[in-house]
Amino acid sequence: MSLPSRFVKMAGAGNDFLVFESDGRRLTEEDRERLALTCRRGLSVGADGALFLTSGEEGRVRVDYFNADGGPATFCANGTRCAARYAARHGLAGDESVLETGWGVIPARVEGEAVTLSLPSVPAPQDPIPISGRGLPPTAIPVTVGVPHLVVFVRGDLSRLAIERLGPPLRRHPALAEGANVNFVKAAGANRIEVRSYERGVEGETLSCGSGVVASAIAAVRRGLAEPPVTCGTRSGVELTVAFRDEGDVLSDILLTGDAREVFAGELTEEAWRA
Fold it and tell me: In the chain, what are the domain boundaries?
């Protein structure tokens, strides 16, 4: 299989993706290398990752997700929201759909540009682990929402935090075997937090991270810094909303709502993946 040439560019709260109607399970190593080159900004289309959509079982939509480095990932919340919107706009599903992801089966509801995911239950945050870094607290909180996250609460000016310097060592924290996405969080009111995210696979800050704001909202509520539903401000300026039910050892009925927009459609040429 060669990487499909036709694609749609989508964005969910600032996370941007290339969307292909194709089976991601059939990508070759060469395809994945080309995908990584196509996700470069400046030299190619540019994206935080890529979504491959096909028909799943029982009328569902299968979603295979790849990070910007071409590596497969279990789940991407903003990407899954974009997949639901694409499926509704292009006749793969209705406004109410069920998406098959590497994490599990996820129902979605599309209302205009707004998409709400009903996420699987997740375990309670783990015990804090020690961290270091100028302007950072002594500990951070591991939370798994389909993929591993590390939540760092900061007190200073979040907009001035040197995330490109602080993110890499935390993303590879020795206590986290698979590494983690790192979310820097500041409480901003009874029902609001501000979040900046450094994502593995992108190896840099993204304008938002859907599963990251869920992890951040859960950690904030557990620390008594917010109450659900939690409005989450992101680097893009677009807000996401997280609601859930705290059952002690598990968080259930998790809803993530935010925008998912179709930006443009295009066709790749071989120059898109020229080194």
Answer: 6-111+260-266, 122-259
